[in-house]
Amino acid sequence: MNSPSAIPPLAAQPKLAPGPLFVVSMWRSGSSLLYALLNKHPQVGLMYEADLLLLKPVFLKPKARCDWAERWQFWNGAFARHGISLGEIPQGLADFPAAFTAAHQLYATRKQATIWGDKSPNYFDRINEMADDFPHARFIIVWRDPNGTANSILGAASLGNSYFSRKGAAHCGLLGYARFKKETDRLLQRGKQVCQINYEDLIADTPAVMRQVCEFLQIPYDDALSTLEGADRSAILPGEHHANLRGNAIVRATRPALTDSTLRQKIASYLTHWRRKYNAQWPPYPLPAGSAIAPPTLFTRLIDQILYRLIRTRDAISPLVFSLAPISLLRRYRQSKTRRLETAAQPDQPGPIDCGGTSCAAAKISLLATQVRS
């Protein structure tokens, strides 16, 4: 097939897949690129980092008070970003699988797609939980060289992203990589449908990887899926760290190194540890070169794990609060945060040209203002 028209048109009311598709990676590891390419297919309608799983505590509330839809929209603008109004969501849904299914199938149906689900790195340590909730789920796992992941996390922080600017973000990305591997192996042991790809292969030979993905999903491949031209990126959150994703060309050039020698040495030591543990079969990248550095000691790994768990506990606090705190209080907090950003922003200093001239602070203000009004 050589053109989008070669993909056969869908029926007026396509039959939806029995379970969702989850595209998962570590943060800053290529799942957004795969999402943008894959969602060009007329049979694929994935939401982008909707992350309803993170608000799962809201479903502990009594059915009459389970305001999950309102809170979800307020938290990350999921409905607005995907062109869905709260009024379109069926009333009376008070359990997570039913709510997730209703929202994600609604989005896919609007596109006349058959494959529904979500793309998010925030599922990396909970994919088996999702498999429990959705027995027919399929998973596409995206791996990336941990050096590249760490460098990209630091790059996003340097552009003003508040999430990746938090202390320990790169450490969590590295230690989380091993947790992600354990979760993936568990999926395979359970006989779940899993497709594993590498970010390095995706940018080096995009058509080959997209063919692999399409074969896994049992949908026809088209060359249009190997370019960002015409991709719908309207649901992607604002921020300069997504500037490359908003272009039409897949960026293959090497990024400037932002990791310091200490972090590079830590990554190298864990690569040695993991390769010994998995008989040199994982991680797939970087390719082994020269003599390996010594693995971390047991004591170092223990301390690193404690720090990792503390960071993940911290990360869970915000969605827990947004799930259970009075929404009126959350609105006042959001309004106060918006005012602080407006005070700190300098609108006379535009962002980079490839980011559309929008500063990171201005993008945050725009998103927060939208969520406050919703």
Task: Break the fold down into its secondary structure elements and pairings.
Elements: E1 21-25, H1 31-38, E2 44-48, H2 68-76, H3 78-81, H4 96-110, E3 115-119, H5 127-133, E4 138-143, H6 146-158, H7 162-165, H8 169-189, E5 193-198, H9 199-204, H10 206-217, H11 261-277, H12 298-324, H13 327-344, H14 360-373
Parallel strand pairs: 1-3, 1-4, 2-3, 4-5
Helix pairs in contact: 6-8, 8-12, 13-14
Radius of gyration: 21 Å
Secondary structure: helix percent: 40-55%
Low-confidence stretches: 1-5, 346-374
Order of helices and strands: EHEHHHEHEHHHEHHHHHH
Could you tell me the mean pLDDT?
A: 88
Q: What is the overall shape?
A: globular
- CATH top level? Alpha Beta
Quickly count the domains. Answer: 1
Structural class by secondary-structure content = alpha/beta
What's the main sheet like?
A: 5 strands, parallel
Roughly how many Å apart are the termini?
A: 43 Å
Per CATH, the architecture is: 3-Layer(aba) Sandwich
**Strand coverage percent:** 5-15%
CATH topology term: Rossmann fold
Work out the number of β strands.
5
| Strand numbers in spatial order across the main sheet | 2-3-1-4-5
Q: Look at the structure and name the CATH superfamily.
A: P-loop containing nucleotide triphosphate hydrolases
**H/I helix tally:** 14
What's this entry about, in short?
This protein has 374 residues and is α/β, with parallel strands linked by helices.
List keywords for this structure.
single chain; 374 residues; alpha/beta; Rossmann fold; five-stranded parallel sheet; 14 helices; 5 strands; 7% strand; globular; disordered N terminus; disordered C terminus
